[in-house]
Sequence to fold (566 residues):
Amino acid sequence: MASEESKPASNFIRNIIQEDQEAAKWDGKVQTRFPPEPNGYLHIGHAKSICINFGLAAEFKGKCNLRFDDTNPTKEEQEYVQSIKADVRWLGFDWEDREYYASDYFDTLYEYAVHLIQEGKAYVDSLSAEAIREYRGTLTAPGKESPYRNRSTDENLDLFDRMRKGEFEPGTHVLRAKIDMASPNLNLRDPVLYRILFAEHHRTGKKWCIYPTYDFAHGQCDSIEKVTHSICTLEFEDHRPLYDWFLEALRIHHPQQIEFARLNLTRTVLSKRKLIQLVEEGYVTGWDDPRMPTLSGLRRRGYTPEAIRNFCERIGVARRDSTVDVAFLEYCVREDLNRISPRVMAVLRPLKVVIENYPEQQAEMLEAVNNPEDPGMGTRQVPFSREIYIERDDFMEDPPKKYFRLSPGREVRLRYAYFLTCVGVLKDKQTGEIVEVRCTYDPTTRGGDAPDCRKVKATLHWVSAPHAFEAEVRLYDYLLNDLPESEEGRDVSDFKSRINPASLSVLSTCKLEPGLSEAKPGSRYQFERMGYFFVDPIDSKPGKPVFNRIVTLRDTWAKIQKQSQG
Ligand code: ATP
Ligand code: MG
Fold:
C-alpha cells in the first residue's frame, strides 16, 4: 500500500472494532469478508466495501476473506468470478488462501435447515409463489398463516428430503422459517429458506436441485467462517433481525452485522442490473469500457488503484445515504497523476504553423522538463523545426477581447522553444477554413524567455510537423447526462434516457512528440494543457499506441468547493 496515504480518519465502524478490541471481545480477533455475488463485474461502489473490509482487517491485524455469494445458480458465471478476483487484486488487496464460496457450504446449510425443521422452526410450504406473496401481507396489513404451517416434523423432514431428491416440480414446495406472520418486519414473516431450482451450478454442477436463499445462506456462511464484523450496506438493516434469528435458532457463532451507506455517485449508475444492460444492449463495448464505473473500466481508462483507495478513504463511512460528486473521484485521480505522470506535448486537433524566418531543412533539439512536480524525473530533448502543429483552439483570426492566444499580430510563447508572432493565414479557397498559419519567431528567445524581459500572455504547446508521431486518442465524457437535483441519488427516471450520445470522441490524426511512438501499454502521461492519458492496454499495438483520456486538467472539484465556500 502506498505510504503517502494519510492516516485514516475515524469512522463508526472503526470505533466499534476499537471498542471490541479494548473489551477483548471476539478474543481480540477481527475477521471480515467481502461477499460479492458473481453475477456481474465489480464497480466503484464495491471498491468502497472492499476498502472497508480489507482495510479494517489489515488495520487491526485481522483477516478478510473473499467469499463468493453464489447461491443463485441461474445468474452466475465463471467469467465474473475471474474478473472479481482480478479487480480485488488490482485494487491492492490479498485474501491469501481464503477464497471461499457459499456453495462450499451447501451441505452444512442443508444440515442447518434440517435442524431448524427438527426444532419446529421451519416447515415445507406448498402454497404457490403467488399465494405466498398474497399471504405475506403488507407494511400496514399483517400476513396470514399458510395452511401448511403446522405440518408435523416428520412430514416436513420427509418433504424436504424429497425436495432435495428432485421429486417435485419447481414452485410446488418451498422451505420456510416459522417466525411470525404478524411481525411488523416483513422479513420475519416466515421467509423462504430453500426453493426448488433445476439449474446447473457453476461449482456444484447438478448435485443440487434446491438452493438456499440469500437471507438463509449469508449469515450462516459468516458464522461458518467465524466472521466477527459482518459489514454490509444499509438495505440489509431490515434483514438484521432475521440474520440474528437464524444464528440464535441454530446456536452457532454469531457475528455482528453492521450496516453503512452505499456509495452513490453523480452521473453514474452503480447497480449491476443496470450496468449489465449497458453491456448487453451495446451502449458500451463491454464491462471494461473506459466509460464504465466498473473497476475494470476505470482500470482501462487509466485510473490508478492508489487514487481509488484514496477516494474511498476520503469519502468516509457513514450511516446516512448521500451522493458523492463524481468530480471528487476525478480530483483524487488527478492528484495522483499529477505526481507520477511525465509531461509530454501532444496536439489533439492539429493546425499547421509555418515559421517563415526559420531556415528550411533545419531542426534543433530543445530541452523539456519531464515533471515540474518531481525534478528527479529529469528532462528530455524535443525536436523543433520550421513547420509545427499547434492546437486549432489556440488560434483565432478574429479574437474576442480576452483571448490571449495566437491571432494575427499577436506574440505568444511556444513552450520550451521561442516567442512566435502571427503574420498571416492561409485559407481553403472553397470552404474558407484556415489551413495554415504563417508566423515569424524571435531567435533570441530560445528556451522560452526574452532577453529584454518582454512578456507574453499565453504559452502554447506544439509538435514539430516533420517529426510528429500520429496517433489515435480517445476522449471520454460522462456516459450519463446530469440528473435534476431533486432526483439526485434516487434516479427515479429511466437511466437510459439519460445516456449521453457524445460520450466518446475518437481523434485519429493527433500529432504527438516523437518519443511517444515508444509509449508502453499501461503507461500514463500528462499531455500538457490537455489532460492525463493512458496507453490502452488492449487496443495498442507495438509502435502503435492508442491513448485514452483519463481525466482533463480542469479541476471542477476545486471550483465546486470554492463556490460552496462563497
Ligand atoms: P449492485 O447493487 O451493484 O447489484 P450488490 O449489492 O447486488 O450490488 P454484491 O455482489 O452483493 O452486489 O455486493 C458485494 C458487496 O458490496 C456487498 O456487501 C454490498 O453491500 C457491497 N456494495 C455493493 N454496492 C455498493 C455500493 N454502491 N457502495 C458500497 N458497497 C456496495
Ligand atoms: Mg447483493
Observations:
- Residues 37 surround magnesium ion (ligand 2) (CB under 6 Å).
